[in-house]
Amino acid sequence: MQQVDESINAPYDGSALIADPIHKYVSFTVPYANPDPHERTEKDLIDSPWVQRLRYIYQLQSARWVYPSAEHTRFVHSLGTMHVAGRFARHLYPYLKKAVKDVPSANYVEELLRITALVHDIGHGPFCHFFDDNYLHGFHLTHEKLGQIIIREHLGPVIRKIRRSPSGAFAKGEELNPDQIAHLILKEKGKDNSKIPRWLNMLQPVISGSYTGDNLDYVLRDSYMCGVAVGPVDLTRLIHYTIVTDKGFTIHKTGLPALQMFLNTRMYLYSNVYFHRTTRAIDIHLRDIFGDTMKLLFPSDPRKKMEDYLRLTDWSLLEEVRHWTKSRQKARRRLGHEWARILDRDVKWKMAYSTALKEKGQERGMAIPSHTLFEELITKELPKNLKDIEFRVDMAPLDPRPDPKDQRGNPLYVYDPGTKQVSTQGYNGPVVVCSARYQPIAGHRPNRKVTEFMTNNRDMEVWLAPLGDGRAMVPYRISVRTMVGMTVIEARRFQVGGDTPASAAQR
């Protein structure tokens, strides 16, 4: 008998590959040939019912009825996000180790970000973000909050037993903490986060920021699966020029053009895919029937019936409502016929008018106007013969400008190799917030609705930043509630004494 050299199998023992059209291959850990019965791997987590459930939740809720090839799921997106987060972790670790003390091992940090990325969408229900807005909102929930429950209570036992990343084993005594994963997914308001390690907060932008494992994967994947030609997304360059400094997650100035290209590509997808007129028309139709559907299908708070929520997916919902056309119950039968129209792509609504709402001086921070408010205002202005016309207003928020802050309001830091300084374009310091009131004195029309509205307006604030030694205060931010939402105007730059630059702020 020929003796086999076991060292040949060593590089392949404990790891495997998943073929992927975006990243070519996604590596993941699997049990060793002679497994430790107490160890769990990424394969165990991927094969768990909660992660496998994502196979039955489509990535693009309504756009797949517009783009026929967009049949990909949250499952494949989660695998891709895990891959990108792992790349970020391996690149950032030397910088993180230099910036912060008491950082765990490189393999631990890599796996923490990979697992967080893998389960970041674990709480999604059917129709994803639409489900958040039109169902979970009624229970004061989001998919992130549900995801935290699933991570802590259902996936925690598996997560705690994972002891290595694709790069190697953790340091002795290290164990993945589901609470840290839950924190990376969503920083909970009102919770004492004083014990959260600084290194963990520094890594949060990899999961929720201006450019993340999440949005980098979905921009690449969604454009590919939709067959939409978009500008280049230089993933490697973005990762390469991202570092961690003592201030936090930082992009090297050289990487800014790549970031700009990515943000432009994402904007293109929003305007041409996610906010496509037919996609939005289908969403309006869904909005009219979704609440009543869920009252019949899943009326309870998901937190009280998590085992039932496990089985609630796009597939289960669509299979159920498909049969309602033949129901003996009038309510189910009515809803069944509306769902049949959607499934047959019989679009109920057609665009009558479209415009981009722009206002001189309007800056980032304006709240999304309520579609019901606009419908009420339009109805009041319609002539008598059109008062009974049935119409809907759809508000699709789109801001093409790069966001100088991530989703949690943290500044986007930029490293300038010329000055060797890390800075942000946003003001970072103490402020005095003052309430303001509108008092009409002259030049107004007393009988106008806008005058009455502004007179009674209590949502007006001015933010004052100290200048120099603090004896002078300058306004750099003004927020005013209008009849269509909140408008925030924030200074991009202010100067004192001619050309002498003072502080700067951008919104």
General description of the model:
The chain is of the alpha+beta class and 507 residues long. The chain has a domain at 6-230: Hypothetical protein af1432, CATH 1.10.3210.10. It has 17 helices and 12 strands. It has helices at 42-46, 49-52, 74-99, 106-118, 128-134, 143-160, 178-185, 198-203, 213-226, 235-240, 256-274, 277-297, 306-310, 314-322, 330-343, 371-381, 449-455, and strands at 15-20, 24-29, 164-165, 168-169, 242-245, 248-252, 413-416, 421-423, 432-435, 460-467, 472-482, 485-490. A 4-stranded mixed beta sheet has the order 5-6-7-8. A hairpin with a 3-residue loop joins strand 1 (15-20) and strand 2. Helix 4 (106-118) packs across helix 7 (178-185). The protein is globular and about 80 Å long. Mean pLDDT is 85; it is low at 359-366, 399-408 and 498-507.
- Helix proportion of residues, in percent? 25-40%
Question: What is the number of beta strands?
Answer: 12
Beta-strand content estimate: 5-15%
Elements, N to C (H/E): EEHHHHHHEEHHHHEEHHHHHHEEEHEEE
Structural class: alpha+beta
Q: Write the CATH homologous superfamily of the domain at 6-230.
A: Hypothetical protein af1432
CATH class of the domain at 6-230: Mainly Alpha
Topology readout:
Elements: E1 15-20, E2 24-29, H1 42-46, H2 49-52, H3 74-99, H4 106-118, H5 128-134, H6 143-160, E3 164-165, E4 168-169, H7 178-185, H8 198-203, H9 213-226, H10 235-240, E5 242-245, E6 248-252, H11 256-274, H12 277-297, H13 306-310, H14 314-322, H15 330-343, H16 371-381, E7 413-416, E8 421-423, E9 432-435, H17 449-455, E10 460-467, E11 472-482, E12 485-490
Parallel strand pairs: 6-7
Antiparallel strand pairs: 1-2, 3-4, 5-6, 7-8, 9-10, 10-11, 11-12
Helix pairs in contact: 3-4, 3-9, 4-7, 6-7, 9-11, 12-15
